[in-house]
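Notebook p. 47: complex prediction with P-hydroxybenzoic acid.
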Amino acid sequence: MKTSVCIIGGGPSGLMLSQLLHLKGIDNIVLERQSREYVLSRIRAGVLEHGFAALMREAQCGERMDREGEIHEGFLIAHDGRLDRVDLHKYSGGSSVVVYGQTELTRDLYEARDRMKGVVIHNAEDVQPHDLASATPYVTYRDGDEIVRIDCEFVIGADGFHGVSRKSIPKGVLREYEKVYPFGWLGVLSRTKPVSPELIYARHERGFALCSMRSQVLSRYYIQVPLTDKVEDWSDDAFWAELKRRLPAEVAARLITGPSIEKSIAPLRSFVAEPMRYGNLFLAGDAAHIVPPTGARGLNSAASDIYYLYHALLAHYERGDGSGLENYSAKALARVWKAQRFSWWMTTMLHTFPESIDYDKKLQETELAYLFSSERALGSLAENYVGLPF
Ligand code: FAS
Ligand code: PHB
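Predicted complex, structure tokens below:
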């Protein structure tokens, strides 16, 4: 097989790029290791920056998001038994976020690929990029007993943290930066009315909690748990009881509980791989960087990678201008590191750390006190949360 751009990974990053390129007549193939059902079974991000939402509309996939997604102009922080609101609209100069699940937007992207007869190959096993430093890279994968070869001009590594792409960059070339947090998030999805019309991030001495949603009839809740916890350690009743302990009394009193339809523990880590390019391989999304979900930056950091890559490939194919590709890694990393900073700041401010001393706890309280005493501090939070400019 032959194509211009071979995209490894059929998650939001790979699918978004595939759709955008196809709309501009740039042929591409997506290789996805899992089945479509498996990809759509994963519950992940829930908050989209306005930049991501704009990209969905540019990819002609924004119609259901605009119909079913919710515009949120603020969120709440619960701390010391009180609830303070972060007015995103006011402090970001009029911007907002869209609450719309990653599962749904991935479904929208798949359906758009189908409508345009895009080539998305599922259950592609043993995907392996080759000759990345040459002008004629290619990718192989196994289809049953057959090894299939795809000749291409560019390979996009959109295969997530555990993918093959980043690992195909020679060790001496790649620099990796990692910070592993000593806790995880136990997440529950329940067919219940959300406890609050806006998200609630809660700092509590028992641990962090988050009240989120996917719609007005589908709630998403998280509590911080030790890394040693297993999902089977947590019954639904135990989860709801612990969540209530970490929320202000008036919020806990109106929490509607119900059976979990999904329950999982995600470890929290910060990770960046540099550079995000090697020869004709370009990394995008979780293949290159991971953030703790506290600042809702994970999926949104992938958006700017895809935006930069899309415009760089367009310039290359339409005008023979390779500058976007040359500058991609530096440009993407500049914004990636700002998302890393913001995610680290939100995580450090709101979680309990096993090794923290009383001084650290006072600093956390002071960080929150300063935040809600300063319009400039709220402006800094708001501009990061709605998404820094691409
Ligand atoms: P993805 O990991 O989504 O997609 C990569 C795709 O590549 C996958 O479908 C995988 O099957 C495929 N693949 C892997 N190896 C391959 C190979 N060798 N060959 C072919 N295909 C291969 N972000 C938030 O903003 N908020 C959240 O609450 C949040 N929660 C998360 C919870 C979990 C458990 C995880 C893992 C992530 C979470 N994230 C969250 C971050 C998440 O949303 C990512 O940022 C987002 O999935 C990034 O999308 P992709 O870059 O497409 O990577
Ligand atoms: C979610 O709804 O899954 C969600 C929302 C905001 C976050 C993290 C996760 O910061």
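Notes: The pocket of P-hydroxybenzoic acid (ligand 2) is lined by residues 45-47, 199, 212, 220, 293-296 (CB under 6 Å). The chain has two domains: 5-71+99-178+269-348, 182-267+354-386.
Next step: compare against the earlier run before touching the bench.
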